[in-house]
Write a structure and sequence with these properties.
The chain is built from seven helices and six strands. The protein is α+β, with helices and mostly antiparallel strands. The protein has a six-stranded antiparallel sheet, sandwiched between helices. It starts with a helix and ends in a 16-residue tail after the last helix.
Length: 271
Amino acid sequence: MQLKSLQRVSLALAEERSPDGVLERLVQGLVDDGVALARVWLLDRGDICQACPLRNECRDQTRCLHLVASAGRSRDGSEDWSRLSGNFRRIPLGARKVGHIGATGTSVFIRDLAQQQHWKPNAGWVARETIRSFAGHPLVFRGEVLGVLGVFSRTTLDDEAFEWSRTFASHAAVSIANARAFAELDQLRSQLESENAYLREEIEGVLAPGDIIGTSLAIQRVLQQIDVVAPTDAHVLIQGESGTGKELIARRIHERSRRRGRPLISVNCAS
């Protein structure tokens, strides 16, 4: 991991607004300069606890780390490691090196995985893919751990590269948080537009003379009462079973009142 590469990826993340786009650019941008595999896990509720391969290592089945982005290929190019399945698609907090990072909020640097004893990775995979080093960082935004960034390198990482990757993880956490905020704003905007369209229909809805159809004496009596009360400032209580047209009557009163040039606001009191 070189400084220029990390700077380039950071700039790309700053231009992305969707959460999925940020995560994809993050891991794809890191798979370069000797990086074999880059992955991001984000904290979320426990969802596959019964079927989780690491269930026995999970002390709290309410939350865990979800694998949300992955990039990398085997040395011979035959395996694509972008899949989000596998034994490590969920990692319990505190379990393994990634779970330790998520639980404690502290980074983990393993310069030589071949000599690792505390967290034992898949020795066969490490040897076959000539994986030398691991760098893992918490993704922290405003004091909250959002998840974990993990990088497996085929070149031996030094202290400087590890520190640069730590700084990069801090920028990545901000990008993830911002993308989530943008997504929430888009959702709220869509909801507001939907509600606004509904209110406009309610406000702009007008009754044509033929909107109330009926020739019975009861209907004619109601229409006469409307014509009497509409021009006044009296409060009107309209009663009737659900679906009998109370709001229709209210609109007709409004259309024949001195307030007909102003909006009629309908409020669902039950809700």
